[in-house]
Amino acid sequence: MISIQDVSKVYSLESGDFFALKHNNVHIKNGEFVAIMGPSGSGKSTLLQLMGGLDLPTTGEMIVDGVHLNKLNEKERTLFRRTKVGFVFQNYQLLPMMTVAENIALALSANKTPKDEILHRVKQLMKDVNLEGKESQFPSQLSGGQQQRVAIARALAMKPQLILADEPTGNLDQKNGTDILQLLSKLNKEEKITIVIVTHDEQAAKVADRIILISDGEIVQDRRKGVARNEPLASSMA
Ligand SMILES: Nc1ncnc2c1ncn2[C@@H]1O[C@H](COP(=O)(O)OP(=O)(O)OP(=O)(O)O)[C@@H](O)[C@H]1O
């Protein structure tokens, strides 16, 4: 699903080059649920953004679902993001002037999906995230947990095989955070959607079946559940 080969991300600053990511290699298989963890500023979000084609590496190769992201032009990358990846963010990033249904339908409308198909899909998604009846409400009328459910429904709209979530529980209390993680876990188990989340949430570490620990731009640990710490790195077994 995701192949990251010798990927670095360098920012040119007045003080010189800054390596946000340093020569990383990761392989994530279809159907995995991966949590990327590590200290603040270690490069977690940068890595996730590269996986989703929101940004490009300075050097190295990013291959997602067979697509070489470095080889796409801007327009192709936009289409890739819209059709292949569902994004979920800490602050939900819903459009405040649009209803819940309109937010969920955004990518479908952009992709010129017929109206009756959109209605049908939105209805199903509302059911999937347990928000039936809230179609006509605006994001500000929903709780944080409900807004994150809308964001997940929106991420699922195009039936992506990959969901990338950056601190999806970061703004939620423990109960709502656990509910969101359970929803992601259900999507992973039942729909076989590959899920990668960046998180500081210890609860997330429990639902993920693989934890990648990043420090100072480098992957320092890559551990699958049930694999003892002294066994080879999961990335080198992939
Ligand atoms: N556009 C940019 N220009 C310069 N430096 C940047 C830029 N974007 C990120 N960085 C730097 O790259 C490093 C990694 O940032 P990143 O957001 O990936 O960290 P993170 O691990 O997700 O942190 P947090 O847990 O605090 O969100 C940080 O030191 C950050 O300051």
UniProtKB/TrEMBL annotation:
The keyword Signal does not apply. GO terms for cellular component: membrane protein complex; plasma membrane. The keyword Nucleotidyltransferase does not apply. It holds the Pfam family ABC_tran. GO terms for molecular function: ATP binding; ATP hydrolysis activity; transmembrane transporter activity. Keywords: ATP-binding, Nucleotide-binding, Transport. InterPro entries: AAA+_ATPase, ABC_transporter-like_ATP-bd, ABC_transporter-like_CS, ABC_transpr_LolD-like, MacB-like_ATP-bd, P-loop_NTPase. PROSITE patterns: ABC_TRANSPORTER_1, ABC_TRANSPORTER_2. CDD domains: ABC_MJ0796_LolCDE_FtsE. Coiled coil: none annotated. Residues 2-237 form the ABC transporter domain. Belongs to the ABC transporter superfamily. This is ABC transporter ATP-binding protein. It comes from Lederbergia citri. The lineage of its organism: Bacteria, Bacillati, Bacillota, Bacilli, Bacillales.
